[in-house]
Amino acid sequence: LQVFDDEGKDVTPHPLFHSDLNAVVPRQGKLLTSNVHFGATGTYGSSSTSLSNASTTESILDEMVEPGSRRDTTVSLSDVQGRQEEIAELTKEDLDRTVDIYLTETETIWILDMPSVAVSVESEDAGRIQERNRIYADICKNRPGNDRFVEKMMQTLNGAAKNKEVQCDQIIMEDKGMTVTSWDLYNSFNVLEIKPTSKAEGSGATAGRSSKPHTTKEHDQTTSVSSERGSTSSSTMISGSSVLARNHEEEQCHSEAILTSEKFQQDLFFMERILMENTFQPKLAAYRQFPVLIDPDMTSDTSGTVAAVKEAKEKEHGKEKKDKEEQKEAFIDPSILSDVNKILEEIVPPRLERLWSYTCDLTNGHSVSSMAWSKVNPDLLAVGYGAFDFKEQKKGLACCWSLKNPMWPERIFRCEHGVTALDFSMASPNLLAVGMYNGSVAIYNVRSCNDVALLDSSESSNKHTGPVWQLRWVEQDRSATGDGKTERLICISADGRITEWLVQKRLDCTDLMKIKRTESGKKKLPGEKERKSEALISQQAAGMCFDFHPKDTNFYLAGTEGGHIHKCSCSSREQFLETYRGHKGPVYKVAWSPFSTDMFLSCSADWSIILWHQDSQTPLLTFSSTTAVVHDIMWSPKSAFIFAAAKESRVEIWDLSVSILDPVISYFASPREKFTSVLFATNTDCLLVGDSKGEVGVFELQNLAAPNSNKVRLTR
């Protein structure tokens, strides 16, 4: 049957399968060129197969070569047979061998995602969509003539590129040379074999060596006299060189003994302290709020010292004014004082003045994850270095810095995994607890120069399986233990457990609380139906942070990855006392107020900081000044209104007595730098800020006056 179009052309469809063998041969390519003969017998494993008809060959070709494919098939039938023979030669041992197969979850690949623009009236989301459409229509209706909607334009300019050139002095080359004899080469080569003996033995030995070349010249009788003179002069040169070599060795041994002596090391330590004190004296004086000392013999001062002196004088003058104001406070109306303080703050705004940074070559490239002051020595700071992201994990560090040497840490503890949390003990000030990203906990002795941990949780069967995000030494109440206080080490981990560690011959822990997942508590819109509960992968929620009550250590707060904050009790391990829902991302830090013990702060990855009251599940205030993740917060130890927050792009100082909308101080980070943690100094008006480059900056809080006690009571 043939089909012709209107113009008479043959448009009959051709079949894809040809039963004629001659039509298939040009398509076979290299598959059956020299290995297959029709009617021959080919080996397949251990059996024989006869390829005798064209249909069988065509079926093989259709299986091996895809019709219409542009790929050049280079696999021959002999190759296929060879692979099948290799598979058939498997032994029993190969079949019984255990093979490990790892199944990993791949990323979801969306082939096509076209969200619909129309929703059925009978669907579950119909009510919610209608409510959104109504709200949008109201907004569009109220927009014309409204002052809340303003159209603005802006234009940014790119900085012009700069070309920089560097020029150095020309390197001057010099040619130098000297003339030596064969005897000098021979004696210099054998100088190392000379043993340190007495001068007489040394001269005899060198004379014996010089006689060796002399005997070689005795065969020539015409030069016998000159050879005797040569032996005498060479022996003198050798004896002199041996004495110099022996003296050099003695001096080298003596210098090594001096360098390795304990007294010399102690003297170097004192010299280093003196140099650091002279170098950082103006900045350390500003840190401790002391006057800057000036050498009377100095004829000229540097600009930095002069500036420090001026700042010290201004501070002293400010203190005198403050004392006079306090004396007159009893006779002046408090409202007038507040107005005066506001005027002074507007004239001289508060700011952060950078003093120095704790950094060295060892900490460069490590992110600062946590900081903690020593409970006994206020000049000793412990800093943990480790990454928060799983892809950026590497070996961590725990360093102890001192104010007496800001350029190199006093103690360095190298860890196999990134350090995520650390804290000093109160009962034993020499113990430093360190939590790591792999879930292990280690305790180091800072009095020892050895960087090996005293105790670690590697042998514990109850150790954490996720990162230890926070740990703290907590003192137990006196009511439970009598007059004496005992200390507990508490940790919270991403595996959903809050544990209490027992410090004995080895570290072991018991579960204080297993954080269970709770519902989000979202309100349903009108017309929205109840949805089915989704199956949870894990029944436990990942813990991120915790903080014990400053007065009653039986109660504590726990922040989770789901954005919830739970109030828990050490007496109850099964249920929460309260649950505060306000964040939409992981809660990175919670902190009780040291002055108003019924208030606490929380920060999250949702760019917000929330002020809570423990008796209310509704947030009191929400602070959100910029769209950046808030990594850390801390209350000021000297004021009930001031707290600091570390965001990725900047550090903020909030004073609630001045404003609840904007921070009073904002210090911005460099373009390739992110702030990760903050810590107030315990005895001075300074703030420590850690960043992602491994630096801990020390800043002085200037012109930030704490409110008086009357104002605190009035606000409460």
TrEMBL record:
Residue span of region Disordered: 198-240
KW ATP-binding (keyword) present: no
Composition bias type Low complexity, residue spans: 222-240
Keyword Repeat carried by entry: yes
GO CC terms in record: axonemal dynein complex; dynein axonemal particle
Subcellular compartments: Cytoplasm, Cytoskeleton, Flagellum axoneme; Dynein axonemal particle
Name by which UniProt lists this protein: Dynein axonemal intermediate chain 4
Source organism per UniProt: Stercorarius parasiticus
Gene that encodes the chain: Wdr78
